[in-house]
Amino acid sequence: MRGRLIEEKIFQGLMMAATGLVMGTLGLILATIFVKGFRALSLEMLFRTPQGGYYIGGGGGIANAIVGSLVLGLGATFLALLISLPLVFYLNIYLRRKSRLAFFIRFALDVLWGVPSIVYGAFGFTLMVALGLRASLLAGTLTVALLIVPILARGMDEIFRMVPQELKEAAYALGSTRWETAMKVVLKQAFPGLIASVLIAFGRGIGDAASVLFTASFTDSLPTSLFKPVATLPLAIFFQLGTPFPEVQARGYASALVLTLIVLTVSILARRLTGRMINSIK
Amino acid sequence: MALIALGVLSAAFLMGFGLYHRARPVLAGRSLPDLLFSTSWHPAQGQFGLGGFILGSLWVTAIAMAIAIPLSLLTALYLSEYASRRFRELARPVVDVLAGISPVVYGVWGMLVVVPFVRDVLMPFFSTHFKFFPFASDNTTGFSALAGGMVLAVMVVPIMVSIMEEVLRTVPAEIREASLALGATRWQTTKKAVLRKGWPGVIAAVILGFSRASGETMAVLMVAGCAMQAVPKSLFDPAYPLPALIANTYGEMMSVPLYDAAILLAAFVLFLMTVAFNAAGWGILLRLEKRAG
What we know:
The complex is a heterodimer. Chain A is mainly alpha-helical. Helices cover 78% and strands 0% of the residues of chain A. Chain B is globular. Helix content of chain B is 74%, strand content 1%. Chain B contains 11 helices and 2 strands.
């Protein structure tokens, strides 16, 4: 009798310790990035491009990477949305709930979601070669778009599935076509949730480095053309940390802070939007 | 719309085929087992044995999973069985944020915190007190398989926790009530009723976590040291996993004949491995979902 109570206490303690450790790690990561990054952060870093000798301690900033990441991330999210939105409509409006095809599409998306981003990078590279492109903003955008389609489509799919079936049936009963129902009823209900999925996909796209390494390459200037290389924040961080100079590494920490702030803002926004949607469905 | 749906279904095949197609030159004239199991990697001499990198991947991933499995299972059990509703609602965003942080930022954190911790605390302790496998090492930099595994563990825990928690919560409350009514303690109920019902989901989460860890690139590249080891000998030695190899050859792979084909073969291997693992993991989860209705 006492044995099992002791066991209960031991495991309860272990579980609380594990949970505390997981939560604590997030705190530790954020604290590390904030403390280390804040010291090196300056207006010059945010608004100037790298000047001569930046990577050995010269002046300038990472505006090239900030702008590059935003442009690439927005472009890729837009492309991914063009693919995902019709797909999700098809899954949820045109296919039946127990449809075998829908099952396989979801399954394929889930599997693609798990393919590592470096493989997307390598695949993007083969595509580039096949299309005769060089490492460029265009190639990077295409690759990241492919990378985030599964995340975006599956995220939106989950949101669509949260829209109550009765609502759709009510619309059909009033004589609406499937398309009208989709546009006026389902889309309206799901809208905040969809935006949240888009934000999450954008956050994932902007934070990924392995997929743009081969395809977008890197440059010290602002993006000017679809066919020229573009700088991205994750790679800027990676390259700055790869130098042996402490002051350049410190700027790498500051760049990591900038990236983390963007991703945090996006994920907090997404969270609030999903919360609002869940409340409106209840 | 149907066209796009077909496109997604064929995307996986296209990706596999594209990589395989570009890898073919290196496969011609060399046997596949030779490429996969040989550990002699000398691109300039035309030797492309990926064995060392595959072993490196497995080694780092195994370390990550040894840390991540108990940690995420205990956390998921706590969140689904013990925590109050308010705590759960507080914890979920934390898990989400952890899952959303850029891999490179994990790498930065690894270099700032994990590597020094391994170098200054773990390594001196273990390699002086336990001079045998897998602790003995003469690498004193801290950039090691263990550092890579620890960072990876932190990265996959959020994914594993959220999948496990979701599955555990689908276990009907009646089962718990029945067990509690029979006089079982909460932990006994968790162990013998909830886990018995939810174990396929836990396995699926582990498979998916493993797959995610084995494909993670940048963070590992930054902390694992990336020096070629034929066979892993110590937690504290550097490790050179497959994804890091692919990322590192950026820039040089067009300069040596067949180098790019060998790298794309590496990507193809990684692709096949992760597709297989994900198919298994999601297969289990979708089946569970279907059964639950």
